[in-house]
Specification:
Arc Repressor Mutant, subunit A, mainly alpha, 9 helices, single chain, Tetracycline Repressor, domain 2, 66% helix, 0% strand
Length: 205
């Protein structure tokens, strides 16, 4: 299973023993696995507890409902995977980030996200958590990457890079969600070399 990182501080439950933060990651890994297997609609708190190897009380001390659990997992699921990189050059950084995206969409996180898409159409809290969690993590990663490039003198600080950020992932996401064609590292390199990097070079200072 994928490691789901969290920066949560230790909170105590309402009475009883202090909450064990080491259980949070295990439970979130369980939710990712189950979402990929059965989807959001068929998911139950009992199944999460069994998959994580914890008692139901451990789950309910943290999250009151299935939606709370899934929303919280979405909010933290991509933070480690979308962490900024620094290869020493903007082209190297973009290539590293795009290849990391390939790994994400082909792994447990990608499977879980796909399983949630139908539920998002009628679960606003899931949609909001997705935008504020995984999508925001990737936006922050791209932002840090361009800031590093400006500090190295590769890129002017006032250059609009928003379109380039979207272009670097759009074709991969189209394959992942719409065409069903494989999203591979070789395909990512084709996208980088023919579409993304030529556009990037036109922006370099």
């Amino acid at each position: 299973m994928a490691v789901v990182a969290t920066t949560e501080t230790v909170r105590t439950s309402r009475g009883g023993r202090p909450r064990d933060p080491s259980r949070d990651g295990v439970i979130r890994e369980a939710i990712l696995h189950l979402l990929g297997e059965v989807g959001y609609g068929a998911l139950t708190m009992d199944a999460v507890a069994a998959e994580a190897g914890v008692g139901k009380a451990t789950i309910y001390r943290r999250w009151r409902t299935k939606q709370d659990l899934v929303v919280d997992t979405i909010a933290v699921m991509n933070k480690a995977l979308a962490a900024p990189v620094d290869t020493g050059s903007l082209e190297g950084d973009v290539r590293a980030v795009v290849h990391r995206l390939v790994d994400v969409v082909n792994g447990p996180v990608g499977t879980a996200i796909r399983s949630l898409l139908p539920a998002m159409s009628h679960q606003p809290a899931l949609t909001e958590a997705f935008h504020n969690g995984p999508l925001q993590a990737w936006r922050d990663s791209y932002g840090q990457m361009y800031t590093q490039a400006a500090e190295r003198g590769e890129l002017k600080a006032d250059v609009d890079t928003s379109l380039l950020s979207e272009a670097s992932s759009a074709l991969l996401v189209q394959r992942w969600l719409l065409t069903g064609d494989p999203v591979t590292h070789d395909y990512a390199d084709q996208v980088l070399d023919t579409v993304v990097l030529p556009g990037l070079r036109s922006l370099l200072g």
